[in-house]
UniProtKB/TrEMBL annotation:
UniProt keyword annotation of Hydrolase present: yes
Superkingdom of origin organism: Bacteria
Any GO molecular function: hydrolase activity
Origin species: Lysobacter defluvii IMMIB APB-9 = DSM 18482
Protein name: Hydrolase
Alphabetized UniProt keyword annotations: Hydrolase
Cross-referenced InterPro entries: AB_hydrolase_fold (IPR029058)
């Protein structure tokens, strides 16, 4: 597991604490007579397949515009390459009653800053933030 942790951190975009969570749930021992046993990464193969239903940007924005309840949006900063700032802002603008929080982090923001993300959402749900 230590080698897997080091490799995941070296791959970039994630701190050691978040990488540890991914490694703990993402590796499985391989028993093949080795002492100690080796490990392999396990994952849901569906995550590597194309999305079954792909929406256009117009459809996404239409769905966002139809949301009638208050929404808390949590974005990671810096923006990820697959979700650039211009697109984030355009989607946020579609929401009728939204508040925006931007936190330092990446794709795994919810793991990198779990307490902060939870606190933001808790405050929103409790009406205190």
């Amino acid at each position: 597991p230590a080698v897997a942790l080091k490799a995941r951190v070296a791959a970039g975009g994630i701190d050691e604490a978040a990488a540890r969570l991914l490694v703990e749930r993402g590796i499985a021992p391989v028993r093949g007579g080795e002492e100690p046993p080796g490990f392999s990464w396990r994952s849901d193969p569906r995550l590597t397949r194309p999305t079954a239903v792909r929406m256009t940007e117009g459809q996404v924005r239409g769905i966002l515009a139809a949301i009638e309840c208050p929404v808390r949006v949590v974005y990671a900063n810096p923006p990820q390459s697959y979700f650039p700032e211009e697109q984030r802002q355009a989607r946020y603008a579609c929401l009728r009653d939204a508040s925006l929080v931007t936190l330092e982090g990446g794709h795994h923001l919810h793991m990198e800053q779990a307490e902060r993300v939870a606190g933001e959402l808790r405050g929103f749900l409790e009406g205190t933030a």
